[in-house]
Automatic annotation (TrEMBL):
Pathway linked to the protein: Amino-sugar metabolism; N-acetylneuraminate degradation; D-fructose 6-phosphate from N-acetylneuraminate: step 5/5
Residues at the catalytic site: 67 (proton acceptor), 142 (for ring-opening step), 144 (proton acceptor), 149 (for ring-opening step)
Function: Catalyzes the reversible isomerization-deamination of glucosamine 6-phosphate (GlcN6P) to form fructose 6-phosphate (Fru6P) and ammonium ion.
Organism field: Herbinix luporum
Domain Glucosamine/galactosamine-6-phosphate isomerase: 11-238
Catalysed transformations (reactions): alpha-D-glucosamine 6-phosphate + H2O = beta-D-fructose 6-phosphate + NH4(+)
Protein name: Glucosamine-6-phosphate deaminase
Family indicated by similarity: Belongs to the glucosamine/galactosamine-6-phosphate isomerase family. NagB subfamily.
Gene name linked to the record: nagB
EC number: 3.5.99.6
Keywords, ordered alphabetically: Carbohydrate metabolism, Hydrolase
Record flagged with keyword Phosphoprotein: no
Listed GO biological process terms: carbohydrate metabolic process; N-acetylglucosamine catabolic process; N-acetylneuraminate catabolic process
Length: 259
């Protein structure tokens, strides 16, 4: 695993975008797993800039998103702030601004009538696409990947997961609060790729920034591999893992471990 530490959020974002762009240039029909959250927004802005100014071509790229709130789907009749679906996030923050084909985009359907069947089909679709070449990941406040909350096993697959209190609170603070929502309007369930699904990706790119993430990043990288910090699964990952952090998020790591 390679750990890269950058001075600040902007440099972290540029470095992450370059990592993704390099793969797309090498393999134009790459299958990329995208993540939501505050962390990757800067990376997506940089990818948009690369598309517009440098012609980075997404026309053959295939995508699979990590997760979606159960019960939410893109609702264009609402302004963006009032539509907190991850699907809307991806279109607003990235897909609307690059030349990706709509039919190549896969995001779990939070409005599905049959979540179990949907989850099975999502796993199948990833396999049919040839597997994920690069999975982008953030890390939740309790150390989760996607919505793999504490207790998720290393062999877990795409499924419905109940969100824990801290995750609901973190997501409220990060997105819902400023849009005027109350805590009782928060979704409590989500469809998430499993840890087993994520660990099958050919490479991983994990991002974290800010002092708030320092402790959980250290736990994930140095602590025991435990279902209480599901990002600790990175320690048993067999493919190529790259971790890009800003200085603050890396503040509890040993400086000999990173570039
Ligand atoms: N499901 C998402 C995760 O994929 C994301 O990594 C996490 C952290 O988000 P942020 O980047 O806003 O800290 O939030 C949610 O729980």
């Amino acid at each position: 695993m390679e750990i890269i530490v950058k001075q600040d959020y902007d440099q972290m974002s540029r470095c992450a975008a370059e990592h993704i762009a390099e793969l797309i240039r090498k393999k134009p029909n790459s299958v990329i797993g995208f993540a939501t959250g505050r962390t990757p927004i800067g990376t997506y802005r940089e990818l948009i800039r690369m598309h517009k100014e440098e012609g980075l071509d997404f026309s053959q790229v295939v995508t699979f998103n990590l997760d979606e709130y159960l019960g939410l789907g893109m609702d264009l009749s609402k302004p963006y702030a009032l539509d907190q679906s991850y699907q809307r996030f991806m279109y607003e923050e990235l897909f609307n601004h690059i030349n990706i084909k709509k039919e190549n985009i896969h995001i779990p359907d939070g409005l599905t009538k049959n979540p179990d069947e949907f989850c099975k089909a999502y796993e199948e679709a990833i396999k049919e696409a040839g597997g994920i070449d690069l999975q982008i990941l953030g890390i939740g406040g309790d150390g989760h990947w996607a919505f793999n909350e504490p207790g998720s096993t290393l062999d877990s697959r795409t499924r419905v997961e109940k969100l824990n209190e801290q995750t609901i609170k973190d997501n409220y603070e990060a997105f819902y609060k400023e849009a005027g929502f109350t805590m009782d309007e928060m979704p409590h369930y989500a469809i998430t790729m499993g840890l087993g699904t994520i660990l099958e990706a050919k490479s991983l790119l994990m991002l974290a920034n800010g002092a708030k993430k320092a402790k959980v990043v250290a736990k994930a990288l140095y602590g025991p591999v435990t279902d209480q910090v599901t990002a600790s699964a990175i320690q048993v990952y067999k493919g190529k893992a790259t971790i890009i952090l800003d200085k603050e998020a890396a503040s509890m790591l040993d400086s000999k471990d990173y570039n």
